Automatic annotation (TrEMBL), chain A:
Residues 255-449 form the Cytochrome b/b6 C-terminal region profile domain. Gene3D superfamilies: Cytochrome Bc1 Complex, Chain C (1.20.810.10). It comes from Kitasatospora paracochleata. Residues 1-21, 533-553 are annotated as: Disordered. It is found in: Membrane. This is Cytochrome bc1 complex cytochrome b subunit. Keywords: Electron transport, Heme, Iron, Membrane, Metal-binding, Transmembrane, Transmembrane helix, Transport. Its cofactor is heme. It comes from the Bacteria. The chain crosses the membrane at residues 56-80, 126-145, 157-177, 189-210, 222-247, 279-300, 347-367, 387-406, 426-443.
Automatic annotation (TrEMBL), chain B:
Residues 47-126, 148-226 form the Cytochrome c domain. This is Cytochrome bc1 complex cytochrome c subunit. It comes from Kitasatospora paracochleata. The chain crosses the membrane at residues 247-266. Its EC number is 7.1.1.8.
């Protein structure tokens, strides 16, 4: 909770007229405050409260891995040469001795084998990137499933979405820089995708690559975009993201004493500062340990890129894996229109579906806001079970994403599970359409089941494990009544009612015109909050009746 | 002459002439006929073919036919050469256990001398690639030459082999359950023979398209990446590219970090645990 920030502070009063400062530190603080006016800022924010929950730290993992990536990235730029000029390798890695390669590849080999700590830093950079995007996705899922994207946090949701999207592309460009056989294949893939764009594809390709593939320009251009343009935008978005988190204050889960108007937790200073600071070093430690243990992107094994060579297992890093899946399972349709203009649908359709997969989940909050018509602020996070349609939608999206990842790794699944790659591809084609529907239905019913269980617990208490034998011989399990706090927590959530369409005829008996959109909205609202969308939570009256002694327990 | 002449009407004269004529013909034939043919019957090669034929009749003929002519269950072996037999039987692929998309490498059930006998028999059915000699596939004893071979072999490997066998020879998937097997632990001789004969789904690389020297360089590269090279980056994660890296990152990167986050969140200065 931010206290009201004082407007008149010691900033304007010269400290020398006052009593002598107690210590050197105080004098230094006074000096700084007199020039920067940080006292009021610090006073307002140092006691800011953050609620404690492990899932609220997922965003911190993203922040810290991002910092690690920037730190290690700066080190790598000291030695990397973003050039596609040809050179002959004479370094210490014998199996590539005398092989022709680009300066980019040779300098990455140099970083890996000659620069002190180079390989470890490279691996920390790459592993941190892999974890960074994964953490962003999980962080996004946490926000999604708890409904933390609702007003007033919609804009921040979009900032986060932008960070994820940029993070994916910066990762792609990053692993494309060494110009090894794998990354070159990825750049070739991208060329194919650009060429598949109707009408402008060839122009775009020539513009981006500076001529025919591979040309001399793509690595230097990617380098500038990778180290300057995208990280710059990301840094801006990140700051905006954090400012908004500060401004909105963090959401919290329901519980006694927690209201929409307050935040219950620990103050930033000193508790959260210590925890968050410590967590940074834990994150750095884990990433460094992973990087010291396991190889990532062994460019020396891949060899330098040559357009006439290719290796199997040519997949992108995991965050681009779903686009690989889209391409792999798409039938190779190709049609010719207007006398000889080829339309490469086998690549173009996946290219169009690729942003859709992400947009669908990013736009969902706005769909939900429209359906519910809810204009109020929400600072209490939902339990996923209490928003069954939203949870089911999120789970369906995850299933779609995972199916596409399976499609992207179909060859490894085939070899390791001794299956036919064709069968996997057909499975993915069918699952792409079918599985999200199945998962949606199962998840929604699951949530409703959990709601019923919560209701049961509130009304009848929890199972105590104590078996009692009644005088007439019947065995019953004794149910223990929940504490008041638990009952509150389980019933704190709101249960909105579905929107009702106005009566078909008005008071004068004239038929009302109801637009199709309004009808669709009412129908969706019924699906969200109607009888099939939620289980009515227990009321105080129900509870009173059961516990009054007339009930069975 | 008178004596001969007097006895020319003797009842046995015709017989004597006949014997003399036969002796002369036989002697002349023995003197001029090619000697090898006559000696072949008792050589080791002939014995090997005989033994091989017997082994073939027991272990192979049910699919390949008694004379290796092939049946509906197995291809003809006329002209496949001894190298193909040495590879297929020497890696345990043959005799096949069951029909399927591809016959896998398994335990070798024939001894090398039996394999040689089978190879001799199949080679006798028609000319084909022969088992290579050690100097054709063994690495060069000169370290500098060997290093150059490995680097050249790597380039050849990436051009000709990596698209199916993966950049580190870990193998990969082909259509309909077929696959390019891993090259890990494969005998250099068998790698060479595979290139020469093109077993199962593999294309063959005869000396006309890939000279002996290049095959030897590829073998040197495979041997180096499989055995000699310590991996500089730590665990290889199977050398399978970004898929296993992503899996590892999710489980041991993010997974561990989430456990750490739960630990940090669980330890706090709260007066009472809620």
């Amino acid at each position: 909770m931010s206290t009201t920030s004082g407007t008149s502070t010691g900033a304007t009063t010269p400290s020398s007229t006052r009593a002598k400062p107690a210590s050197k530190w105080e004098a230094a603080a006074d000096w700084t405050d007199g020039r920067l006016g940080i006292y009021s800022l610090a006073k307002a924010n140092l006691r800011k409260i953050f609620p404690d929950h492990w899932s609220f730290m997922l965003g911190e993992i993203c922040l810290y891995t991002f910092i690690i990536i920037i730190l290690t990235g700066v080190y790598l730029t000291l030695f990397f040469k973003p050039s596609m000029a040809e050179t002959v390798y004479t370094g210490s890695y014998v199996p590539l001795d005398g092989i022709r390669m680009s300066e980019a590849y040779a300098s990455t080999m140099n970083i890996s084998f000659e620069v002190r700590g180079g390989l470890l830093i490279r691996q920390i950079h790459h592993w941190a990137a892999i974890v960074f995007v994964a953490a962003m996705l999980v962080h996004m899922m946490r926000v999604f499933f708890t409904g933390a994207f609702r007003k007033p946090r919609e804009i921040n949701w979009l900032f986060g979405a932008g960070l994820l999207f940029l993070g994916m592309f910066d990762g792609f460009m990053g692993y494309s820089l060494p110009d090894d056989l794998l990354s070159g294949t990825g750049i070739r893939f991208m060329e194919g995708a650009i060429l598949a764009v109707p009408i402008v594809g060839t122009y775009l390709e020539m513009f981006l690559y500076g001529g025919e593939f591979p040309g001399q320009d793509i690595v230097p251009r990617f380098f500038t975009i990778h180290v300057l343009l995208i990280p710059g935008i990301m840094l801006g978005l990140l700051v905006a993201h954090l400012i908004l988190v500060f401004y909105h204050k963090h959401t919290q889960f329901a519980g006694p004493g927690r209201k929409e108007e307050n935040v219950v937790g620990m103050p930033l200073m000193p508790v959260y500062m210590a925890k968050a600071g410590g967590f940074f070093f834990l994150v750095f430690g884990v990433i460094a340990a992973v990087s010291a243990i396991a190889t990532v992107n062994p460019i020396w094994s891949y060899g330098p890129y040559r357009p006439d060579q290719v290796s199997t297992d040519a997949q992108p890093d995991w965050y681009m894996g779903f686009s690989e899946g889209l391409i792999r399972v798409m039938p190779g349709w190709e049609i010719s229109v207007w006398g000889g203009h080829t339309l490469n649908l086998g690549v173009f359709i996946p290219l169009m579906v690729f942003p859709l997969v992400l947009a669908v989940i990013w736009l969902y909050p706005f769909l939900e806001a429209w359906v519910t018509g809810d204009k109020r602020e929400h600072h209490i996070a939902d339990r996923p079970r209490n928003a069954p349609v939203r949870t089911a939608f999120g789970a369906a999206w995850i299933s779609l994403y995972l199916v596409l990842l399976i499609g992207g790794g179909n060859d490894l699944i085939a070899t390791h599970l001794h299956l036919s790659i064709n069968s996997i591809t057909y499975f993915v084609r069918v699952s792409f359409f079918l599985l999200p529907v199945i998962v949606f239905i199962i998840t929604k019913r699951w949530c409703l089941g959990l709601q019923r269980r919560d209701k049961e617990k509130v009304l009848h208490g929890r199972e105590s494990g104590v078996i009692k034998r009644l005088p007439h011989g019947e065995f019953v399990e004794v149910h223990a009544d929940l504490s008041q706090a638990d009952k509150f927590t389980l019933t704190a959530h709101e249960q909105p009612q579905p929107i009702e369409l106005p009566a078909e005829v008005d008071e004068n008996g004239v038929a009302r015109k109801v637009g199709r959109l309004a009808k669709a909205r009412a129908k969706l609202s019924e699906g969200f909050f109607g009888d099939s969308g939620q289980i009515a939570k227990p009321t105080a009256e129900e509870h009173a009746e059961i516990t009054s002694g007339h009930g069975h327990h | 002459m008178k004596k001969l002449s007097a006895r020319r009407r003797h009842p046995l004269a015709a017989l004597v002439v006949l014997l003399l004529a036969l002796a002369a013909t036989g002697g002349l034939y023995a003197a001029f006929a090619p000697a090898e043919k006559a000696q072949a019957d008792t050589s080791a090669q002939s014995l090997a073919i005989d033994e091989g034929k017997k082994l073939f009749a027991v272990g192979c003929s049910s699919c390949h036919g008694l004379n290796g002519q092939g049946t509906s269950d197995g291809p003809s072996l006329v002209g496949v050469g001894s190298a193909a037999v040495d590879f297929q039987v020497g890696t345990g692929r043959m005799p096949a256990q069951q029909p399927g998309a591809q016959v896998p490498r398994k335990k070798v059930i024939y001894s090398q001398s039996e394999i040689d006998q089978l190879a001799a028999f199949v080679a006798s059915l028609g000319p084909g690639p022969v088992v290579p000699k050690p100097e054709q596939y063994n690495p060069s004893t000169d370290p500098a030459k060997n290093a150059a071979d490995i680097s050249k072999g790597g380039e050849l490997f990436r051009t000709n082999c990596a698209q199916c066998h993966n950049f580190a020879g870990q193998g990969g998937a082909l259509t309909n359950g077929k696959y390019a097997p891993s090259l890990e632990g494969v005998d250099p001789k068998h790698i060479y023979e595979a290139m020469q004969t093109g077993p199962q789904n593999m294309p063959s690389f005869p000396d006309t398209t890939m000279p002996e020297e290049q095959k030897r360089q590829i073998v040197a590269f495979v041997r180096h990446t499989e055995n000699d090279e310590p991996n500089p980056g730590g665990l290889t994660l199977g050398s399978l590219g970004p898929v296993t890296e992503g899996l590892f990152g999710w489980i041991f990167g993010l997974g561990v970090l989430i456990v750490v986050a739960i630990w940090v969140a669980a330890h706090t200065t709260k007066a009472k645990k809620s």
